[in-house]
Amino acid sequence: MSRTTARSTTHLTRRLVQLYVGLMLYGASSALLVRAELGLEPWGVLHQGLTELTGISIGVVSIIVGAIVLLLWIPLRQRPGLGTVSNVFVLGLSMDATLALVGDLDGLGVRIPVMALGIVLNGVATGLYIAARFGPGPRDGLMTGLHRVTGRSIRLVRTAIEVAVVVTGFLLGGSLGAGTVLYALAIGPLAQLFLRIFAVPAPATAPVAGSSAPQGIPQGTPQATAQSPAGPGPVAAPPSGQAILPQ
Q1: Would you give per-residue pLDDT tens digits along the chain (247 residues)?
Q2: Which of 32, 22, 31, 23 is nearest to 113 (CA)?
Q3: How many Å separate Cα 180 from the centre of its chain?
Q4: Whole-number Å distance between alpha carbons of 134 and 129
């Protein structure tokens, strides 16, 4: 096996590991927010409300909702990636598994730290998953698809979707609270931080004769291959094949 092939294999392995570790941690972080009982992230409010309505576990509800949202990609002409399909199943399974391991919590002295841990862990998971660049989650693909079709800004489309999701979930019995507000304020900066930490550089390739890297940017550096969100707001639509914030 040539050195270039070996490096390419190692690069792909790292991306796959980041993808699935990130997705599992994302599901675990959502489960911790459920156990803290101090408010969930927007889609978590909807999932919990549907769980209250149907009696189905919140992880399975997450899978069903993800699959339905993915079907909405068809008229929007969005193309899923490995990360998109994996997102549908891994998040829900990880969430139910974590809820089975972590029982009900008593007292704010325990629930507040668990809420904080869930939010920070969600930021870590987001950085891992996005930086792997295997495609956006179903919910984020819906956002970028509507942005492209309607011409409205990413921020406006995301806000409209999440307000609709939160209101529907709350009316169905999902929980809002301090955790919902803290999540909304913290997830942008946390995602930006961990995207930079977990950025995967492009695999080194043999230079083409007569070509050179742009002045001041060495070949193979992350600047040319990965983009981090520019602020605490929603992540802008990336080039094809990159993932964005999976809410």
Answers
A1: 567 777 788 889 999 999 999 999 999 999 999 999 999 999 999 999 999 999 999 999 999 999 999 999 999 888 899 999 999 999 999 999 999 999 999 999 999 999 999 999 999 999 998 899 898 889 888 988 898 899 998 889 988 999 999 999 999 999 999 999 999 999 889 988 998 999 888 766 544 444 444 443 333 333 333 333 333 333 433 443 344 444 4
A2: 32
A3: 16
A4: 8
How far apart, in Å, are the Cα atoms of 179 and each of 16, 86, 106, 185? 30, 26, 16, 10
Spatial separation of the C-alpha atoms in residues 23 and 225, rounded to whole Å: 21
What CA–CA distance (Å, rounded) separates 200 from 95? 26
The amino acid present at 16, given as its one-letter code, is L
The answer to whether 240 touches 141, Cβ cutoff 8 Å, is: no
